[in-house]
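Late entry, guanosine-5'-monophosphate complex.
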Amino acid sequence: MTASEIQIHDKLFREYIPENALHDKVVELAGRINIDFAGKEVIFVGVLNGSFIFAADLFRRIKLKARITFIKLASYAGTTSSGEIRELIGWNEDLNGKSVIIIEDIVDTGVTLEHTVDNLIIRNVKEISIVTLLLKPEAYRKNIHIDYVGFEIPNDFVVGYGLDYDGEGRNLPAVYSLVP
Ligand code: 5GP
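Prediction complete; structure with ligand written out below:
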């Protein structure tokens, strides 16, 4: 195990996106959102658990009149998606007629994202945009356009910066990728 490697439970992970690259990307994404939504009132919807650190870092750089709320979904057991979404904390904000930006930590198959988008559509929001820190293009199976993508990554399991492996690793300041 080298300095850039860490062990979580039974698995070895190697640093993949360093802390400063994450920081620069968050600044860039927030800057683009500030320009694109200038003069608008926006509600951000963070998808817990994984997005909480990205959401906090992004949101504090938003200069718009903005609110943030969170929903909590679960679809993963270990390092594979179960494909079935469970809503652990639901929708409690009135989103009718609002401009909404979904904040995702990572989009893999897109099942979770589709679930979130469907829930916004039935709530009659005015417009839906999506920002995700990470996207796995090879795994993505949906046609929903993702407006802001931080990093496109290979189809490997990652942890850190909010993302976990069986509950651990969320506090790592960088993103780490599973060593096969
Ligand atoms: P999807 O529904 O797009 O297949 O999966 C999205 C959710 O699965 C993410 O919000 C995240 O919770 C989890 N997920 C997908 N890929 C990874 C990964 O590489 N690492 C971790 N820790 N979670 C992932």
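The mean pLDDT is 93. Will revisit in the morning.
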